[in-house]
Amino acid sequence: MKVNGTHYRSLWWDDDRQALQIIDQRWLPHDFRVQQVDTMQDFADAIVEMRVRGAPLIGATAAYGMALAARLDPSDAHLDESFAFLDKTRPTAINLRWALTRCRAHLKALPVDERAAAALKLAHEISDEDVEINRNIGRNGLEIIRGIAAGKKDGEPVRILTHCNAGWIATVDWGTATSPMYQAHDAGIPIHVWVDETRPRNQGALTSWELGSHGIPHTYITDNAGGHLMQHGQVDLVIVGTDRTTRRGDVCNKIGTYLKALAAKANNVPFYVALPSPTIDWAVDNGVAEIPIEERLEREVTHIQGLKEDGTIGQVQVTPVGTPGGNPAFDVTPNHLVTGLITERGVCAASAEGLAGLFPDLSKLAESA
């Protein structure tokens, strides 16, 4: 997508510098900064500190981390060490483990002297695959929006609510939940997006930055406003992303998603999840019981970052001194609250049968593992 008229991906390889470049998302939406990632520690810090964030982008970043590991030392022992080092950076998003596993398995099957070049090639492929996956998610989600638009009066927008940022900067490009929005807007379908602020890190501001750059009408709302809007018929559908989805269709996403799903169910508002296949964890059935939920720093809750009146970016404390902050980063939405899963292969029910029907190859592979 574009920033100030220039096309960017969330990460890209600089051939001249032989190094990965990332958009450092800690400073968005107020400042656009690019960082070069040079060391294995840089890769770990980028993921832990959410310089890169969003399950697909974390996976792509990890693939380039394994490429660096193979360049430094392509031995089996070092690949295993690098796998473990990066795997512990964030526990919830399954794309991290998926990318690391894919890279290590691919490289270990090759002669040692071929691994460095092959690792970089694979990282490029994983990034390009993510772009196409998200483009196709958008095409399939577009048909849902088009169907709702057909029942609207001329010029009346389809009103979409989204939570967190599942946009292009949470992926390599296009985004998951936002891809149908971009494609609907580009197709001339009027839409309006309700953007949840998504405390504590306020990723909704990133979504607003993205949508505004693309010219899509939107309104930034508090996390608690969504239910009210649904009660008053101002939301036509909800589309969110996912960091991990179980084989039966339970969805783990940013904290607060579960509450939106409950409100949508109570008000007969369709609740869709944009689901790239690498986020399916075929080894997990019950998301509430089995998915580990990352507990992040309490400072993210007790403090808030923003643009000060003097034009600098800084943090202020919003809680009384000494008050502790609890910070579970994700929650799980059970499959019975999900209207459908929008994938790169089509839209299916949030169920074991629905996912296996669209991805028989992956489900059978998981069964045989």
Automatic annotation (TrEMBL):
UniProt key word Isomerase? yes
tRNA processing in keyword set:
no
SUPFAM superfamilies the UniProt entry points to: NagB/RpiA/CoA transferase-like
| Residues that coordinate or bind substrate | R53, G54, A55, R90, Q203, N253, K254
Point out the signal peptide segment.
none
Which keywords are on file for this protein? Amino-acid biosynthesis, Isomerase, Methionine biosynthesis
Q: Which Pfam families match?
A: IF-2B
Q: Where exactly is the site Transition state stabilizer? A: C164
Reaction(s) catalysed by this chain, per the record, are: 5-(methylsulfanyl)-alpha-D-ribose 1-phosphate = 5-(methylsulfanyl)-D-ribulose 1-phosphate
Identify the InterPro entries for this entry.
IF-2B-related (IPR000649), IF-M1Pi (IPR005251), IF_2B-like_C (IPR042529), Initiation_fac_2B_a/b/d (IPR011559), M1Pi_N (IPR027363), NagB/RpiA_transferase-like (IPR037171)
One GO molecular function term of this record is:
S-methyl-5-thioribose-1-phosphate isomerase activity
EC numbers? 5.3.1.23
Listed pathway(s)? Amino-acid biosynthesis; L-methionine biosynthesis via salvage pathway; L-methionine from S-methyl-5-thio-alpha-D-ribose 1-phosphate: step 1/6
Source organism's superkingdom? Bacteria
Positions annotated as active site in the UniProt record: D243
What does the protein in this record do?
Catalyzes the interconversion of methylthioribose-1-phosphate (MTR-1-P) into methylthioribulose-1-phosphate (MTRu-1-P).
Family the UniProt entry places it in? Belongs to the EIF-2B alpha/beta/delta subunits family. MtnA subfamily.
Q: What is the name attached to this protein's record? A: Methylthioribose-1-phosphate isomerase
Organism expressing this protein natively: Roseibium sediminicola
Encoding gene per record: mtnA
